[in-house]
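Handout, page 2. Input:
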Amino acid sequence: MAITLTSLVAACGGVDREGSRDDIVEAMRNQGLEPDVECVDHVLDGFSDESLESIDDQLQDPTTTDPQTRQFLDALVDCSTPATAAP
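Output:
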């Protein structure tokens, strides 16, 4: 399973973590996943603003092999399950 993100939300003076979380959760849902929002918050909390800005730059290249970016995306995968269709 993979998650495709195109960017995080950067704001003046740092990363807008709440906005980033909301965008990540929306992207995950658009890809048929059901995210654990608290887990996504925990993942974001595990990275400094500087690291998240670097990851944001790396996300512009869909073929990135940057270890930190892969770690971030893998952690987000662990925060999600496939969404189930309602009966």
